[in-house]
Amino acid sequence: MAPRKLAAGNWKMNGTLASLAEIDALLADQPAPGCEVLICPPALLIHPLAQRAEGRILVGGQDCHPAASGAHTGDLAAEQLRDAGASHVILGHSERRADHGETSPQVAAKAEAAHRARLVAVICLGETEAQRDAGETLEIIAAQLRDSLPQGATAANTVIAYEPVWAIGTGRTPTNDQIAEVHALLREKLVAALADGAEMRLLYGGSVKPANAAEIFAIADVDGALVGGASLKAADFGPIVAALSAA
Length: 247
Ligand SMILES: O=C[C@H](O)COP(=O)(O)O
Hints:
Homodimer. The chain is an alpha/beta fold. The chain has helices at 21-29, 46-53, 78-84, 94-100, 104-116, 129-133, 137-148, 176-193, 210-217, 234-246, and strands at 6-10, 36-40, 58-61, 88-91, 120-125, 158-162, 201-205, 224-227.
């Protein structure tokens, strides 16, 4: 069974080679954290980060193409991420759904490609503010989960991240009850759909900071976080990793 707790950092389109010093600082402060730590940097930094981390943290991509190779200018195959040192790949982030028009069936196809390359797929779901205001959150999340989950998903090869679009990079977070409600729905749907659905890890993402991490990690069925802005600096991500280790 996969270790339960996962602190994942999504650097998005931020960072250069010099930024890898933040990982040195993180590991110097917490050489053996009590949870898995995953950093998903821009693709160009996957290989140098994996070499530098020497297995002490996990490294992931932020997207992959559904095909294993071919004429797809500018895209990256899951096999190439794996070859560079990645073990995970984030898929279906709301920024890719918005910026690149990714649909849930496309996310499922990418996740199947990730699994073929032996990558763990971190599949992101989340409602917009308008959808929440309209009372559609649970319906939207259920539909995204149903359509984004690939054939062959297991607790070992797939992680689900709930990221309300309106909480990403805004400093706003849902209430604990709102997070608990969505995670309970995800758990119920996963248990119904998969033999090991009770074990699949559910991350919360959206304005997770050192100040709110412990409170969020205490919520039922929150097995970790997908952290954006606060994953860029060891001074911010370190306390989040520590809070999850202690949860
Ligand atoms: O993938 C990470 C999420 O988009 C959260 O980003 P944030 O922590 O900057 O709000």
